[in-house]
Records
---
Amino acid sequence: VQLQASGGGLVQAGGSLRLSCAVSGLTFSSYTMGWFRQAPGKEREFVAAMSWTGGGTYYTDSVKGRFTISRDNAKNTALLQMNSLEPEDTAVYYCAAGRPITTYVRASAGYSHWGQGTQVTVSS
């Protein structure tokens, strides 16, 4: 199983980035896809998730209205569109695949497969 995250970079506050996560080695359409992030000196935190049906989307409060998660089951790809970026969004972003029950969709433990991370840096 491989999850390859890409699309990170350096952007000014207010700018946008789109992260992609290419997945192989599992039945993508059967997995919930999540995005997490870890800033220096902080614990990894949940950002967003989309259920395997695409019918359920979840966001942490700080990104609601700015970030949009989506998935393309035909291309085995999960996306995270990030708009109105803030310096507080600076972190390494990780994509993850799992089959968490709703209670654990925001928990790292709900995901069995992880990508390598992509750095997002937002300058003020």
---
Amino acid sequence: QLQLVESGGGLVEPGGSLRLSCTASGFTLGYYAIGWFRQAPGKEREGVSSISSSGRTTMYADSVKGRFTISRDNAKNTVYLQMNSLKPEDTAVYYCAADVGPRATLRAEVYDSWGQGTQVTVSS
């Protein structure tokens, strides 16, 4: 059974950093493109970042470019989202998702498997 588990969320002050992890079980993550999405209360789900199965291609939403970095360690079956210079508007539940296709994309409908999410709260 394909399973994705997010971790690393928490409460951080504005300007701080967090690193989210997305760990897969039941399948080899290296064959999948991975996306990070977020949803704040009362708002639509937003694509944040994506990485191709090879790791050579990455994509970012304009709202996080220059602050967030996605990476993957296929040997550990894990994808990371390093989030720096966090802002209160980054507050949301963050989800990772896997697509059996190789290409990075921020289109949520492409993704087949989703994790349960991890809460990120940016507040002083």
